[in-house]
Specification:
This protein is of the alpha/beta class. It folds into 3 domains: 138 residues, Nitrogenase molybdenum iron protein domain (Rossmann fold), CATH 3.40.50.1980; 120 residues, Nitrogenase molybdenum iron protein domain (Rossmann fold), CATH 3.40.50; 153 residues, Rossmann fold (3-Layer(aba) Sandwich), CATH 3.40.50.1980. Helices cover 45% and strands 13% of the residues. The protein is built from 17 helices and 13 strands. Strand 12, helix 16 and strand 13 form a beta-alpha-beta unit. The radius of gyration is 23 Å and the shape is globular. The two termini are 28 Å apart. The chain binds iron/sulfur cluster. The site of iron/sulfur cluster has 8 residues, from helix 2. Iron/sulfur cluster (SF4) binds next to helix 2.
Length: 462
């Protein structure tokens, strides 16, 4: 056997307070940039140094396998000392002149936050100086990466869409807002499909479908056809209600919309797995006052049938999970429903005690000790595994080193997935997404069983 890749990971666990090793998160602006790409005609702008922007763009590009456009204030030593106002003013002017977006979505970085640049003040100066053309916009979100994670950045930029655009007119509408959380473009598409199937008039924001999973047409488009329009964002203030999924990522925007325009909201878990999808579909049904069509009932029935067929293989399997808080909550509930045992759950995002409590509640009937850590890291996760291995790992690409060293089947899920292609085209939310996950789990487990079977046990049907 070759040398382990993570050979410095010890099984002896020492309490650490000031050191993170292999963080289970990435930095705030990545989430802000991803959310901003969910507005039609938007150019994200990174207010900081070129290196930050290059890293954020490349992480998104490597995950989605699509070119991710973003501009940068290109801080130099001078701007680092005196502030980035003149860089941002020049950038706004250049961007509207050269690239003509509908909106520039500015997010800050560690450096510009440490300097204390006041983005609304700079944007209002740009407006006064005539650098923002009529009918165009500059919005912003504060995304210092020494707090929070990509999840916080996504939540902040999504809330900014409400802060900048949502308006309440005298004409209320029957429309439902859907805030989808930090999920793949294909997941946003799937939520829209379910809403459309139910005959619901909806606005989903942000919406990266047809932006980061767009078809190959042979034509380069700086601003792809997808994304929520500014007009639709403005009208979210007149909507009948909001269904927000993913408490960490969508909660702040849903609350802001209620405070600003009085739009009531229902805040649910991400619709990953059977129960969470049931709650999502039911919330849409109740909020919009519609019936669930037969077509969706059939999808659900198929998922239940697949679970029934697969349950014998899932029963009692120990699982280790690393990911983002909203995803982990729904995934843990899903695994428990399959009679699996999610015994290690780690998020790098600062989701706090509430998250840990929620996971422990969801797993209270699991016949095994469950370890959960918010603001944890993959080093600790690996140490837990060294002390007691699991049957299956679920998480982003960085888990593959642990999977290889410990020889454990691994299902890629979450963000980022850098070493596989296709995930952004297929959902994991909804009944269809659930069926896809089930197939992935079973394939990973049975591939291992086949691989390890002796010739006398190598069965055609297992
Ligand atoms: S952590 Fe801060 S300095 Fe590093 S890439 Fe992210 S925003 Fe830039």
């Amino acid at each position: 056997m070759s040398q382990p890749l993570l050979r410095h990971t010890t099984s002896e666990i020492i309490e650490r307070k000031a050191l993170t090793v292999n963080p289970a998160k990435t930095c705030q602006p990545i989430g802000a940039m991803y959310a901003a790409l969910g507005i039609h005609g938007c150019l994200p702008h990174s207010h900081g140094s070129q290196g930050c922007c290059a890293y954020h763009r490349s992480t998104l590009t490597r995950h989605y396998k699509e070119p991710v456009m973003a501009a940068t204030s290109s801080f130099t030593e001078g701007s680092s000392v005196f502030g980035g106002q003149s860089n941002l003013l020049q950038a706004i002017n250049n961007i509207f002149t050269l690239y003509d977006p509908e909106v520039i979505a500015v997010h800050t970085t560690c450096l510009s936050e440490t300097i204390g640049d006041d983005i609304p003040q700079i944007a209002s100066k740009a407006q006064k100086d005539g650098k923002i053309p009529e009918g165009k916009y500059v919005i912003h979100a504060n995304t210092p990466s020494y707090v929070g994670s990509h999840i916080t950045g996504f939540a902040n930029m999504t809330k900014s869409m409400v802060d900048y655009f949502a308006e309440k007119s005298d004409t209320p509408s029957e429309r439902i807002n859907i805030i989808p959380g930090y999920v793949e473009p294909s997941d946003m598409e799937e939520m829209k499909r379910l809403a459309a199937e139910m005959g619901i008039d909806y606005t989903l924001f942000p919406d990266t479908s047809n932006v980061l999973n767009r078809p190959q047409t042979g034509q380069y488009e700086m601003y792809p056809p997808g994304g929520v329009t500014i007009d639709a964002l403005k009208k979210t203030g007149d909507s009948k209600a909001t269904v927000a999924v993913g408490k960490t990522t969508s909660g702040p925007a849903a609350e802001a919309l209620k405070d600003k325009c009085g739009v009531p909201f229902e805040l649910l878990d991400l619709p990953i797995g059977l129960q969470a999808t049931d709650r999502f579909v039911n919330a849409l049904r109740k909020t919009a006052g519609v019936e669930v069509p037969e077509s969706i009932t059939i999808e659900r029935g198929r998922m239940v049938d697949i679970i029934t067929d697969m349950q014998q293989y899932f029963f009692g399997k120990k699982v280790g999970l690393v990911g983002d808080p909203d995803q982990l909550i729904s995934m843990t509930e899903f695994l428990v429903a399959l009679d699996m045992m999610p015994i290690y759950v780690v998020t790098g995002s600062p989701a706090g005690k509430k998250f840990e409590k929620k996971i422990l509640e969801l797993t209270k009937d699991v016949p095994h000790e469950v370890k959960v850590k918010a603001s944890g890291d993959m080093f600790l996760f690996h140490q837990w595994i060294k002390n007691e291995p699991v049957d299956l790992l679920i998480g982003n690409t960085y888990i593959k080193y642990i999977a290889k060293d410990e020889d454990i089947p691994f299902v890629r899920f979450g963000f980022p997935i850098l070493d596989r292609v296709g995930h952004s085209y297929f959902p994991t939310v909804g009944y269809r997404g659930g069926m896809r996950l089930l197939e992935k789990f079973l394939d990973a487990l049975l591939e291992r069983q086949d691989r390890d079977a002796g010739v006398e046990d190598f069965e055609l049907v297992m």
